[in-house]
Amino acid sequence: MGCCKKIFMHCLDDIKYNSGVIASFVCKSVVAENLLGDMTSFDVTWGSKPATGKAFVRKRKKTESLDDGTPKKSFKLSDAKSGKQGKINLVRKEIKTAESENTKGAKKSFGMKPSGTESKKTFIDSNLNENVSQTLIKRKQKKDKQAAKLNTAEPEQITSKKNESHSLFNVFHKNVRVKTNPRGKSVVEQVFSDSQKFGDLEIHKYIMSNLAKIGFTTLTNVQEKSIPVVLKGDNVLIRSQTGSGKTLAYAVPILDALQSITPRLQRSDGVQAIIIVPTRELAMQTHELFGKINTFQWIVVGHLCGGENRNTEKNRLRKGVHILIATPGRLLDHMLHTNAFKTDNVRCLVLDEADQLLDMGFKKDIMRIVQEIDSKHTSYNPMNLLKSSHKKFGEETENIEDETEIASTETQPLRDPKSKKRQTILLSATLTKGIAELADFTMKGHTYIDASDEFTSNFSHDVMIIPNTVQQKFVITHVKHRLFTLSAMLLSLTKKCSKMFVFMGTSAMVDFHYELFTNFLAKMPVNRGKMKSGDVLVLEGMEDESDDEEEILDVEFFKLHGSMEHSARKEVFKGFREVKKGILLCTDVVARGIDVPTADCIVQYNGPLKIEDYLHRVGRTGRAGKSGFSYIFLTHEEQDFVAMMEEHKVYLKQEDADSHLTELSVVMEEEDTQKAAIALQKHYENAISNSKDLHKMACVAYCSWSRFYNTFSSKLRKIFDFKQVNLGHYVTSFGLKETPTHVAKIVRGQVAKTEPQKLNRKLATHEDEEKKQRQPQKKKVKSVSLSTSEFSSGLPFKKKRKKKLDI
Ligand SMILES: Nc1ncnc2c1ncn2[C@@H]1O[C@H](COP(=O)(O)OP(=O)(O)OP(=O)(O)O)[C@@H](O)[C@H]1O
């Protein structure tokens, strides 16, 4: 027995690093130890050929093999991906002769010679027949004894014993240490300029005093470098790290130019400057900032964004707006369909978060918007623009000036209402080839401004610059532990942080976790005294408002994603910014540009779909020189992410999940952290299975996750590899007890949640066929839509532009 246990541990390690090398060991030890349900995936023999891909052991076989007391020599397997059935035959299966340290160790513990040509077959045969059958008989005897004991015990004790055999126990293995580079030096970008003040700029004194009122006196580095250039009227492409104050770099010069126009602008003069931002929240935020620095009552700032009432916006445009902040879809919609919206006087175009605009597939919309604006300007020459856009990435921009008219003039076009020129400003925290192309299309020659002194001339650098005031950490968890580890982290981090963004892959994941945490984690009573690791938790009781309960989480939960109603999104965004202590569960919809100055912690529960997304998510903290923390959840299979980030000069430190799990001991009133964690998992699982709605949400969330996990960018796919994941473990991380296939069926509406799982394939198939014959064929209805339009433009739906996730 001891040997088997040892082998299991060896095997587990090997599976982690060396998947498939020692399948036979795994199976054998599994039989002996009754650990089948907890195995990670491994390669098996598929008939006579080795299986491609991964196979997952059917959990139910574990019970069958042990219940009848006879050793099973074969197991049925099903391929999670293809659904193909297979069989692993332990007697016939041969041990592969991998010579890794672990396999040698494992073989030794079975009394075998480390390199095993002669021991290949005999090992399994003899051991299976002797050791395993004995083992199983002993186990059965032990089980019977335990059962007898339990029968005489108090009911409370019984549940406690039952809980101890929760499958999570078996995978509670040591923390994995990931090799990091402690000496790695990231590129540091100074946020504030050394000395320059807003007072040193040639801008209107009212703007200066308004800036001083909100506490801005010293210029940030990017503001120091770019405001004078923008004031001059040049086209610019600006790159600087997140939270460095890029918005003011264009807001101040635009406002200063418009206030200087004499005679004063009238509403009938129409739109003078358009600022395009990717999301509604960013549109609102930018609008707010303009509101703070604009005291010139005759200058009107307005915004247009998807989700708002179109007629209200039409009226707004009809009345007259000078500075228009808009999301691209809705802006184009009005350009094409609102007669009152004239673009003849537009002399400044800003593309903020330019890389996100491209990522979200707005390139065509932006090109169309640019064409619409320029078609009203005499200097517009699309052929020249096209020629210039074929220029190589990173090539100096000066040579284009020969071919096309330069926008740059002695005066800023905005200051001269008669000017037929357009100044363009592109801003981003990351630079990609796409941005270079966009710059070439939208601008006739431009100045490149990089806030980092290291990269003033080198445009196409791979280095990612993240504020050095943010401590970046990663946590390695077993997939099955994700849910309770996240809960523990929320509990512990709220003690030291006031506002937290928790990024998740999909809207459905956000919905589910929000529901779970607000109803259960946030209402976790500290002094209830009932919640021991062995308890079966009375879930309805959790909502009882008894006097002696107090909430352990002194923090408000929020959720924000692209599938929410516009009004709800608006409210949440406002609420989160105003609240003193809060946790925002969100998707990447708020990953860029959003400014919550007091946000001091970022948790990435799912990896970023693109490398740049990591930077933008982390960038929600550490704004304007403030300090912050950032954590990313990684599984054992995803640990190479750390090395990949190091290639981009981003160095993450490992933090043990255990340091957070101790929090659960307090909540669950259980000294042993592992038991407390399991109790919480059980608590969640029971809550989910007892509530139809929550269960459905969990199923939908799981399915949306599986779609999400299939969409990583090609570079990241080798790390976040869907083929490597154990779907069964992920199901557990959503607090579900069903198999992945069953969950998928529930989501598709093929089975009701209450329907028992099909334990016996033959019987189940038979029953199914009978049912089919009895029931008339129903038309298939897609019960849950997993893909939703993220940033609805309001335009009639034409053709799907790009495969979008429900973020
Ligand atoms: N000169 C300044 N002094 C102090 N704080 C400033 C200054 N300029 C901007 N800030 C503050 O810095 C924060 C970040 O500004 P902003 O949102 O413009 O950054 P950003 O570079 O656009 O970030 P991101 O790339 O994430 O969009 C804001 O809270 C803003 O109020």
Give the helices and strands, then pairings.
Layout: H1 2-18, H2 23-33, E1 45-46, E2 49-50, E3 56-57, H3 59-67, E4 74-78, E5 85-89, H4 101-109, H5 120-152, H6 155-164, E6 192-197, H7 205-213, E7 218-220, H8 221-232, E8 236-239, H9 246-259, E9 273-276, H10 280-293, E10 301-304, H11 310-319, E11 323-326, H12 328-337, E12 348-351, H13 354-359, H14 363-374, H15 382-389, H16 400-403, E13 423-428, H17 433-442, E14 447-450, E15 470-477, H18 482-496, E16 499-503, H19 507-521, H20 539-542, E17 556-560, H21 566-578, E18 582-586, E19 601-604, H22 611-618, E20 628-635, H23 640-647, E21 653-654, H24 658-668, H25 673-690, H26 692-708, H27 714-717, H28 727-732, H29 740-748, H30 761-774
Helix pairs in contact: 1-2, 1-4, 2-5, 8-9, 9-10, 12-14, 15-17, 18-24, 19-26, 24-25, 25-26, 26-29
Domain DEAD-box RNA helicase Q: 196-224
Domain Helicase ATP-binding: 227-449
Motif (Q motif): 196-224
Structure description:
Residues 797-807 have a biased composition (Basic residues). Its EC number is 3.6.4.13. A motif (Q motif) lies at residues 196-224. It holds the Pfam family Helicase_C. The chain has a 7-stranded parallel β-sheet, with helices on both faces. The protein has a 7-stranded parallel β-sheet with strand order 17-18-16-19-20-15-21, sandwiched between helices. The protein has a 3-stranded antiparallel β-sheet with strand order 3-4-5, with no helix packed on it. Mean pLDDT is 73; it is low at 1-73, 89-132, 150-165, 385-409, 526-549 and 756-804. The protein is an alpha/beta fold. The protein has 30 helices and 21 strands. Adenosine-5'-triphosphate is lined by residues 216, 218-220, 223, 240, 242-248, 429, 593, 595, 597, 619, 623-624.
